[in-house]
TrEMBL record:
<dbReference type="InterPro" id="IPR001021">
    <property type="entry name" value="Ribosomal_bL25_long"/>
</dbReference>
<dbReference type="Pfam" id="PF01386">
    <property type="entry name" value="Ribosomal_L25p"/>
</dbReference>
<dbReference type="InterPro" id="IPR020056">
    <property type="entry name" value="Rbsml_bL25/Gln-tRNA_synth_N"/>
</dbReference>
<dbReference type="Pfam" id="PF14693">
    <property type="entry name" value="Ribosomal_TL5_C"/>
</dbReference>
<keyword id="KW-0699">rRNA-binding</keyword>
<comment type="subunit">
    <text>Part of the 50S ribosomal subunit; part of the 5S rRNA/L5/L18/L25 subcomplex. Contacts the 5S rRNA. Binds to the 5S rRNA independently of L5 and L18.</text>
</comment>
<dbReference type="GO" id="GO:0006412">
    <property type="term" value="P:translation"/>
</dbReference>
<comment type="similarity">
    <text>Belongs to the bacterial ribosomal protein bL25 family. CTC subfamily.</text>
</comment>
<dbReference type="GO" id="GO:0008097">
    <property type="term" value="F:5S rRNA binding"/>
</dbReference>
<dbReference type="InterPro" id="IPR020057">
    <property type="entry name" value="Ribosomal_bL25_b-dom"/>
</dbReference>
<keyword id="KW-0694">RNA-binding</keyword>
<keyword id="KW-0687">Ribonucleoprotein</keyword>
<dbReference type="InterPro" id="IPR020930">
    <property type="entry name" value="Ribosomal_uL5_bac-type"/>
</dbReference>
<dbReference type="InterPro" id="IPR037121">
    <property type="entry name" value="Ribosomal_bL25_C"/>
</dbReference>
<feature type="domain" description="Large ribosomal subunit protein bL25 L25">
    <location>
        <begin position="6"/>
        <end position="92"/>
    </location>
</feature>
<dbReference type="InterPro" id="IPR029751">
    <property type="entry name" value="Ribosomal_L25_dom"/>
</dbReference>
<dbReference type="GO" id="GO:0003735">
    <property type="term" value="F:structural constituent of ribosome"/>
</dbReference>
Length: 198
């Protein structure tokens, strides 16, 4: 799914210029990285606000039409107002078709309701992580990664390294070993709890 939206170059920089833009329903932002300098731009606030509500917007390669010139980017950072539903600033990073990029991708869990842990073991399945770090070329970026829990047994966990990733996509681990993404936890019954207490 290709998401494309428009932006305009902005010349005026600084806090008061940004405040004026926000009052006019505009959202200041920046496009940086890869080839080219950092490019200050403005977006239509409401359009971006609605796009940010879509999960796919956070894990997709996006196209920004800046005054007729197309930039291929990924979302890197958003600053939100402390209490108003307002985006204050947004950052995008350019991506090159032939360079691997690093991005967080959402996890979609399936099959937990039919797993032996739930059906036979009386377990609750806890989703410990809702996204993983991956590295791939822009063309291989998945919108989400599916985690099949249908074979999960009582007391077992699924680790990041056990997730089946699409072709061309690698898992990125950050030195904390192999994190758990979901686990089957026994739900203690009242009677069982009393027996242990005695």
């Amino acid at each position: 799914m290709q998401i494309q939206f428009k932006a305009t170059k902005r010349d005026a920089q600084g806090t008061s210029a940004s405040r004026r833009l926000r009052r006019a329903g505009q959202l200041p932002g920046i496009i940086y990285g890869a080839s080219g300098d950092a490019l200050p731009v403005t977006f239509d606030h409401n359009e971006l606000y609605h796009l940010l509500k879509k999960e796919v917007f956070h894990s997709s390669v996006l196209t920004i039409d800046v005054d007729g010139k197309k930039e291929t980017v990924v979302l890197r950072d958003t600053q939100w107002h402390a209490f108003k539903p307002q985006v204050l600033h947004i950052d995008f990073q350019r991506v090159a078709a032939d360079q691997k990029m690093h991005l967080k991708v959402p996890l979609h869990f399936v099959g937990d309701d039919v797993s032996p842990a739930v059906k036979l073991g009386g377990c609750m399945i806890s989703h410990v992580a809702n996204e993983i770090d991956v590295q791939c070329l822009p063309k291989d970026l998945p919108e989400f990664v599916e985690v099949d829990l249908s074979a999960l047994e009582a007391g077992q966990s699924v680790h990041a390294s056990q997730i089946k990733l699409p072709a061309g996509v690698e898992l990125v681990l950050h030195g904390e070993g192999d994190p758990v993404v979901a686990s089957a936890l026994k739900v203690k019954g009242a009677a069982e709890g009393e027996g242990e207490a005695a």
